[in-house]
Specification:
By secondary structure, the protein is mostly helical. It contains 18 helices and no strands. Helix 13 (222-228) crosses helix 15 (261-290).
Length: 369
């Protein structure tokens, strides 16, 4: 049975997760990875910091989305659910692909185009950061049978078993073991980091967090166990953190004579997955203690965060294209990019999206009360 009482902690965690995505994308032009725009210099220190946060933001976002999916389904039939998911996900995905993402393509390949309109003439449409919305819709639809099962009394034995396992302080760690095994095995077959839904290593990895959110929401007791065992989970996270950076910073000559490349990658996936799982479960426990509070700020943030997500990367790339050309230090450019892109995104939302029915609709927002 799903508790339909509003979970303000989950609302806050959704806002925090998407803000984490924003700051990650702000850092991307400067960390040496392959982004749409790249600064002439890169920072190894920034890359070393960002590799940590890469393990957190998307797993948390998928798990929170799994809980939201169960809450959304609890009020609807499966046909109503498909209609609601299409309205909230497919419409913004199509609109974003046609109108929000093309500026990213233009500035990434600006030397290739004589004008912006050529992006449309060539049909150079991509989803880019909107891959998350695409994957979320596909997961929501293909998992409808599981959702129906979890809503029915047929799932009582499974949920009772999950509650019994979660009651033990080691139980939440145990529920992460299938994720470790699935990730290591599938990465051998699908080693790419692509977020495309056909890349099964990525899809099953994020799908596991999504399904975990669904199961947590269906459980009667697991949320209280997450609170009760939050200190133990925090200790597990700290240990995972040490193992993660210990392996990440260990010079290759210390391990290459003893482990093959394949086994070294498997060990990397192991420490990454441990870190992700322990962080998310720790945050779910502490979130209930620290964030489960109603506020006007939360209401405003929760309403704005979805269009903010859709807009933010395009604004970062357009503004960042001109900022990376300046003769400033990397740190100065990052601060300047935050000081310009963040308020600009908020202003566009507040002036052009928030007040109007049509823009609220295409950005997946609910109608104004």
């Amino acid at each position: 049975m799903i508790d339909k009482k509003r979970r303000y902690d989950l609302d806050w965690l959704r806002v925090i997760a998407i803000l984490a995505v924003y700051f990650h994308h702000v850092g991307m032009p400067f960390n040496g990875d392959d982004f749409h725009i790249m600064n002439s210099e890169s920072s190894k220190l920034l890359d070393d910091i960002m590799v940590l946060f890469e393990q957190f933001r998307l797993p948390l976002l998928f798990l929170i989305s799994g809980t939201g999916t169960m809450f959304a389904f609890s009020k609807r039939t499966w046909l109503e659910f498909i209609k609601e998911r299409s309205k909230r996900l497919i419409i913004p995905l199509i609109f974003g692909t046609l109108f929000i993402v093309p500026p990213q393509t233009y500035f990434q390949y600006i030397n290739k185009y004589s004008s912006y309109i050529e992006v449309y003439k060539n049909g150079d449409f991509e989803t880019n950061h909107l891959w998350f919305i695409e994957n979320l819709f596909i997961l929501s639809i293909i998992l409808i049978p599981l959702i129906l099962f979890l809503k029915s009394t047929r799932s009582d034995k499974l949920i009772s078993l999950f509650d019994k396992v979660s009651a033990n302080k080691y139980g939440i760690l145990v529920t992460g073991l299938p994720l470790l095994i699935i990730t290591i095995l599938l990465k051998k077959i699908y080693p790419s980091d692509s977020k495309d839904i056909t890349n099964l290593s990525s899809t099953f990895y994020y799908g596991y967090f999504f399904i975990s959110g669904m199961i947590f929401t269906s459980s009667k007791k697991s949320w209280s166990y997450l609170i009760a065992h939050r200190k133990f989970n925090l200790t597990s996270f700290i240990i995972s953190f040490i193992l993660f950076y210990g392996y990440y910073l260990l010079p290759s000559e210390y391990i290459s004579p003893y482990l093959s490349i394949s086994n070294r990658w498997s060990l990397w996936y192991l420490v990454c997955t441990m870190l992700s799982w322990t962080f998310v479960t720790t945050l779910l426990g502490y979130g209930q203690v620290l964030f489960n509070k109603k506020s006007i700020l939360l209401y405003k943030c929760n309403e704005a965060i979805y269009p903010f997500y859709i807009l933010h990367q395009t604004i970062i790339i357009i503004v960042g294209y001109y900022i990376i050309a300046l003769d400033f230090s990397i740190l100065s450019k990052i601060f300047l990019l935050i000081l310009t892109s963040f308020p600009l995104t908020i202003l566009i939302y507040r002036i052009f999206i928030y007040p109007f029915k049509i823009t609220r609709f295409v950005f997946g927002m609910k109608s104004k009360s």
